[in-house]
């Protein structure tokens, strides 16, 4: 079918993309800025209503999807612009930048876990372990060997990936719940090791982890850009943003490849996958390695941002939180996973009052999602060729 | 049947025990190239177990399986497929939440080369390979079933039963097998669908003349029309072998399975 007025079509797509992204951006800023539980609940209800409308109208969904497809470059640039301006808008509130940054770190963990939980249906509850191994490896490497951050992240990723490989070996023989139990046990082992080993500093952890620097510019200094002075958090915000974009790109590429397709096949039916010529164990171990590598790099970023790590940062609860993010957002839908990670990072912060009920909230979210919408808020899209 | 040709697959005294139960006992079977072998027997006689043994899902307790003259005992399923043994399952085992096209592309898994590092660092190559596979999959679907082409971006689970069977056969064919194993392809089909299925099986032979097929089937019409040779098993043992007309005369078969009115 030939389009009669291509330029008009194009303009329409641009406008749709702009409206969509601007909506998301302002919702995010509003959500960050809002104070008090009642206002938060109102915003949540508003977002929920938008989601229901979006979800009901498949025509609108298709329109949006095709608009983003048509104006791909524009959408990317505009989105990047919005994300870059966030620290400028929040420069008076470093804590809010810190929140965005934390959300970014959770996005990194969740996109990593998505390869397992979303693509391959391996319920890996050892995210905290690989994240912790990465954080500790990077801290030790930069403290004792004085290696720069940009080298250390590879060490962190590598050691976490090696841990993932070790974890993957026994799990090729186990399935389903048993596999999850293995990963829980593994997470506990790592936690206990971090707590009891000499060189990890025991329960006191490691402190004075040097801040990263880029061409002699330290990330601990205030950022001056276009006449604005931003708190030092902005440096890390941009660092995390860089990694989030990188992870998203990698996720996107992997899901539209033979590897992503093979993982999906294993998720859908392991025996059929085996009979279709797939070396299931290799692909399972691969998903462990890639997930853990990404967790390790994330841990390195976190350690160098916070400057102090202890075993308390890498407990089982963190794994549960990341699993919840993937389940709520949508299995194997990168956008959904990002949405879930942002939502579940900001939500507990806004309901600080009810902090004791945090665990309860995550439990309720997992149950509600699995009962009412097992595919998550944003289900996986079929591949188009 | 074609004694000058070497056998594609041969089992020698094949036996498998599950605890006290002997599911297959001393089974000697062979299938030549281009042959369609019908495998029949009452429920629980060990037909599917036989397929599971050939495809490497089960390991035999004793006996030998030769594929193209070489022993393949202990070879895992994914390697059996790479050697050229593809199968369908009694109750469809499709990748339910993936598209029809993706299901067929996965059948070509072993012919693709791109790895995860290609996807990450050389995504152009990975994408191109996947697109080429998609094109090939589409050609296969077109040849085999135009209905599936229209629904190629449907989830497999959304297809009606008869189409799911077809899709499963397409997925098996996508791997370019030398030996195709069909486990009750006509189960749950009405006569019209069954007729189409038989046509499809002829189409397979037309497209790949050197393919050999083993069909497990309860519908005697299917076996009578398409099978060159039939093996009857009962309680895991072979009780008769020959053309359909021949096995119909065997008293052991009549007694065990067919009953008088079927022949």
Can you tell me about this structure?
The complex is a heterodimer of chains A (385) and B (263). Chain A is an all-alpha fold. In chain A, 73% of the residues lie in helices and 3% in strands. Chain A has 15 helices and four strands. Chain A has a two-stranded antiparallel ribbon. In chain A, strands 3-4 form a two-stranded antiparallel ribbon. In chain A, a hairpin with a 2-residue loop joins strand 3 and strand 4. The model of chain A has no long low-confidence stretch (mean pLDDT 87). Chain B has a six-stranded mixed sheet, sandwiched between helices. In chain B, helix 3 packs parallel to helix 7 (161-174) and helix 5 packs across helix 7 (161-174).
Task: Give the topology, please.
The complex is a heterodimer of chains A (385) and B (263).
Chain A: H1 6-33, H2 37-56, H3 58-70, H4 72-89, H5 94-120, H6 127-144, H7 149-171, H8 176-196, E1 213-214, E2 217-218, E3 223-225, E4 228-230, H9 233-255, H10 258-268, H11 270-275, H12 280-306, H13 316-329, H14 334-350, H15 358-372
Antiparallel strand pairs in A: 1-2, 3-4
Helix pairs in contact in A: 1-3, 1-4, 5-9, 5-10, 5-12, 5-13, 5-14, 6-7, 6-8, 6-12, 7-12, 9-12, 10-12, 13-14, 13-15
Chain B: E1 7-18, E2 21-32, E3 36-40, H1 47-54, E4 62-67, E5 70-71, H2 77-83, E6 85-87, H3 100-107, H4 116-121, H5 123-144, H6 146-150, H7 161-174, E7 179-183, H8 191-207, E8 212-216, H9 220-226, E9 229-234, E10 237-242, H10 244-249, H11 251-258
Parallel strand pairs in B: 3-8, 3-9, 6-7, 7-8
Antiparallel strand pairs in B: 1-2, 1-4, 4-5, 9-10
């Amino acid at each position: 079918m030939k389009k009669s007025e291509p330029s008009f079509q194009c303009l329409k797509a641009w406008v749709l993309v702009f409206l969509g992204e601007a909506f998301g951006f302002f919702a995010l800023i509003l959500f960050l800025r809002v104070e008090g539980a009642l206002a938060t609940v109102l915003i949540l209800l508003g977002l929920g209503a938008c989601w229901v409308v979006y979800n009901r109208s498949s025509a609108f969904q298709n329109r949006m999807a095709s608009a983003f497809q048509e104006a791909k470059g524009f959408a990317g640039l505009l989105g990047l612009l919005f994300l870059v301006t966030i620290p400028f808008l929040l420069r008076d509130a470093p804590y809010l930048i810190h929140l965005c940054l934390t959300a970014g770190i959770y996005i990194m963990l969740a996109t990593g876990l998505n390869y397992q939980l979303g693509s391959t249906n391996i319920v890996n509850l050892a995210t905290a372990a690989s994240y912790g191994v990465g954080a500790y490896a990077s801290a030790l490497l930069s403290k004792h060997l004085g290696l720069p951050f940009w080298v250390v992240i590879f060490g962190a990723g590598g050691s976490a990936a090696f841990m993932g490989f070790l974890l993957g070996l026994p799990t090729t023989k186990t399935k389903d719940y048993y596999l999850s139990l293995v990963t829980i046990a593994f997470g506990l082992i790592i936690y206990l090791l971090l707590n009891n080993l000499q060189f990890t500093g025991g329960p006191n952890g490691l402190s004075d982890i040097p801040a990263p620097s880029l061409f002699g510019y330290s990330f601990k200094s205030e950022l001056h850009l276009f006449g604005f002075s931003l708190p030092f958090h902005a440096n890390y915000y941009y660092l995390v943003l860089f990694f989030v974009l990188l992870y998203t790109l990698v996720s996107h590429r992997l899901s539209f490849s033979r590897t992503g397709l093979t993982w999906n096949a294993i998720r859908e039916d392991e025996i059929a996958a085996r009979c279709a010529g797939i070396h299931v164990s290799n692909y399972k171990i691969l998903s462990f390695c890639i997930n853990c590598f990404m967790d390790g790099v994330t841990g390195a970023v976190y350690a160098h941002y916070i400057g102090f790590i202890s075993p308390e940062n890498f407990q089982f609860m963190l794994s549960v939180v990341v699993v919840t993010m993937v389940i709520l957002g949508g299995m194997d839908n990168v956008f959904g996973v990002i949405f879930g990670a942002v939502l579940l990072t900001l939500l507990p912060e806004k309901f600080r009052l009810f902090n004791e009920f945090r665990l309860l909230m995550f439990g309720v979210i997992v149950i509600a999602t699995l009962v009412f919408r097992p595919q998550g808020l944003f289900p996986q899209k079929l591949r188009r060729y | 049947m074609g004694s000058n040709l070497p056998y594609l697959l041969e089992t020698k005294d094949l036996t498998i025990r599950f605890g006290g139960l002997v599911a297959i006992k001393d089974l000697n079977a062979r299938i030549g190239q281009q042959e369609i072998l019908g495998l029949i027997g009452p429920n629980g006689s060990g037909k599917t177990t036989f397929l599971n043994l050939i495809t490497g899902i089960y390991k035999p307790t004793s006996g030998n399986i030769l594929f193209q003259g070489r022993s393949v005992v202990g070879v895992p399923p994914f390697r059996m497929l790479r050697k050229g043994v593809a199968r369908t399952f009694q109750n469809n085992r499709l990748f339910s939440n993936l598209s029809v096209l993706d299901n067929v592309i996965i059948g070509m898994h072993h012919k693709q080369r791109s790895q995860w590092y290609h996807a990450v660092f050389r995504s152009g190559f990975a994408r191109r390979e996947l697109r080429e596979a998609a094109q090939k999959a589409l050609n296969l679907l077109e040849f085999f079933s135009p209905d599936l082409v229209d629904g190629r971006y449907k989830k497999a689970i959304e297809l009606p039963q008869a189409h799911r069977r077809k899709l499963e056969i397409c997925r098996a064919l996508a791997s370019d097998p030398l030996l195709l194993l069909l486990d009750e392809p006509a189960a749950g089909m009405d006569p019209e669908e069954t007729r189409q299925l038989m046509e499809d099986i002829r189409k397979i032979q037309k497209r790949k003349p050197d393919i050999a097929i083993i069909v497990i089937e309860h519908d005697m019409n299917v076996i009578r029309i398409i099978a060159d040779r039939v093996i009857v098993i009962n309680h895991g043992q072979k009780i008769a072998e020959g053309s359909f007309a021949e096995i119909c005369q065997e008293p052991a078969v009549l007694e065990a399975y067919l009953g008088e009115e079927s022949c």
